[in-house]
Amino acid sequence: MLLTILGCSGSLPGPGAPASGYLLEADGFTLAVDFGNGVLAALQARRDPFAIGALLLSHLHPDHCADLTGLTVLRRYHPAPPYDPKQQRLPVYAPAEAPTRLAAAYAPSEQERAHTDLGDVFDFHALRPGTVRIGPFEVTAAHVAHPCEAFGFRIGYRDRTFAYTGDSGACPALGDLAVGVDLLLAEASWTHAEDRPADLHLSGREAGELASRAGVGRLLVTHVPPWTDPDAVLAEAKAAFDGDVTLAEQGVCYRVGD
């Protein structure tokens, strides 16, 4: 299982840094996980954008899904797509409101919002807590602590396991998803302070504590906003977890379990 970081800037894209977007690949199948601002450009620089087999969205904040509007244009209007567009819609596993919310983002005007439908391009599947098979991957989703409906994921392929927090404050679901995984991709949007808003994001310390409690093989810290010192967040994570801790880097590939 190969993880590629398309973008890892937190809350919004930074200078030359796309927001959240990741690829998981195994057995020739590519699963895109989140698709925030700037991710489509990063994808085109590294992969054939038509090669994605499915898309998994943790939640519907723009920094995790905004580039689906551009992906709609690519798949709907490309003059020579490598498939029959009428026969091959892209499966999208996302919160239940995704079809209407993303159609509203794509609609050219308020008057046309109610009549905009992306169903010719995407095959939407509403996420629920539980496990589904997506290509070769076994994907377990769980609700996590964030102001909107948001999910974290545990993704397995053969004997390899990966977990992604999405955006979340500290909560029991994260520990359940992360227990014993080979690689944990955990957001950490700020350094630790007792007056941070609850049920929103993890601190570097909380990401490290999560990795330690769950007994993960490796921790990748992601979703650090442009205004946050990434070295300070990393230092907190390292102080709380004595295993392998790294800041996720745009464009870098990581083998899950190696």
Core attributes:
single chain; 258 residues; alpha/beta; Metallo-beta-lactamase, Chain A; seven-stranded mixed sheet; 14 strands; 28% strand
Identify the overall geometry.
globular
Going by helix content, strand content and strand pairing, the class is alpha/beta
pLDDT averaged over residues? 96
What is the fold-level CATH name, i.e. the topology?
Metallo-beta-lactamase, Chain A
Domains, number: 1
- What letter string, H or E per element, gives the SSE order? EEEHEHHEHHEEEEEHEHEHEE
> Which sheet architecture does the biggest sheet show?
7 strands, mixed
Oligomer: single chain
Helix content: 10-25%
pLDDT < 50 runs, ≥5 residues: none
Amino-to-carboxy terminus distance: 10 Å
Protein topology:
Blueprint: E1 2-7, E2 21-26, E3 29-35, H1 39-46, E4 54-56, H2 62-65, H3 68-77, E5 90-94, H4 98-106, H5 110-113, E6 122-126, E7 130-134, E8 137-143, E9 151-157, E10 160-164, H6 172-178, E11 183-187, H7 204-214, E12 218-222, H8 230-240, E13 244-247, E14 253-255
Parallel strand pairs: 3-4, 4-5, 5-6, 10-11, 11-12, 12-13
Antiparallel strand pairs: 1-2, 1-14, 2-3, 7-8, 8-9, 9-10
Describe this structure in words.
It is a single chain. The protein has about 260 residues and is α/β, with parallel strands linked by helices. It has one domain (about 1-255): Ribonuclease Z/Hydroxyacylglutathione hydrolase-like (Metallo-beta-lactamase, Chain A, 4-Layer Sandwich), CATH 3.60.15.10. About 25% of the residues lie in helices and about 30% in strands. The protein has eight helices and 14 strands. The chain has helices spanning about 40-45, 60-65, 70-75, 100-105, 110-115, 170-180, 205-215, 230-240; strands spanning about 1-5, 20-25, 30-35, 55, 90-95, 120-125, 130-135, 135-145, 150-155, 160-165, 185, 220, 245, 255. β7 and β8 (about 135-145) form a beta hairpin. The radius of gyration is 18 Å and the shape is globular.
